Amino acid sequence: MPPTGVSLNDPREALFAAAERVLVRDGGVALTSRAVTEEGGVAKGVLHKYFSDFDTFLAELIISRTAYVATIADELARTAGRNEVEENLAAAMSRLFETPAIQYIKIAIARDEVRKHLVALGQERLPILLQAVAAVSSYIGAEQRAGRIRRDANPAAVAPMLVGALHLLATDEPTAATDYARVRELVVEAIRR
Fold first, then answer.
1. Segment-wise mean pLDDT, segments of 10 residues, the chain, 193 residues
2. Ordered alpha helix ranges (H), the chain
């Protein structure tokens, strides 16, 4: 039985970290409030002390873990004008769907209440995907202005196509979306058109 008197410096972060460990090890199907509190080594009531319900917890977990997309977007933006366009995009995009990111996306898609909580918290329903589309679109636009991508390419169309293709790939075969060579093939096809 987990201890009930464990002192947590940052209880919310400790619960998020426990949830992430469960996701990475066992997948989204295993992610329950009981699994999170057991993994965190805390009493069952601790989660509900900080979150009104499990769907709120999941929505806040997703929000807390989407900061990495902004980091990837910043790194991608700094590569504009340097190296090969395909190389820059493939390197950034192959990091977008690393575990547990694809699990967060699956949770947001599968759980209506989580999406409602995301919106109530001022977020998009699928923040990781939409942030990724914005980052890729911005990068493609920057490369267009630098003359490295065709002027008639439409960043607003290419970006969701690339992110969507990767999402489908990751959903079907999670490691494929992080495979640089496979991601580069998608990028080459998308920006060549």
1. 53 95 92 96 93 96 90 95 95 87 90 94 88 95 94 93 90 82 90 74
2. 11-26, 33-40, 45-50, 54-64, 67-79, 85-96, 101-110, 112-120, 127-145, 155-172, 180-192
Torsion of CA 73, 78, 82, 88, to 10 degrees: -20
Whether the pTM exceeds 0.85: the reply is no
Q: How far apart are CA 111 and CA 192, in angstroms?
A: 36
The closest alpha carbon to 25, from 39, 13, 11, 46, belongs to 39
Q: Are 34 and 15 in contact (CB under 8 A)?
A: no
Domains of the chain: 11-50 (1.10.10.60), 66-192 (1.10.357)
CA angle 112-100-8, nearest 5°?
90
Max CA pair span of the chain: 63
Q: 52 — phi, psi (to 5°)?
A: -65, -30
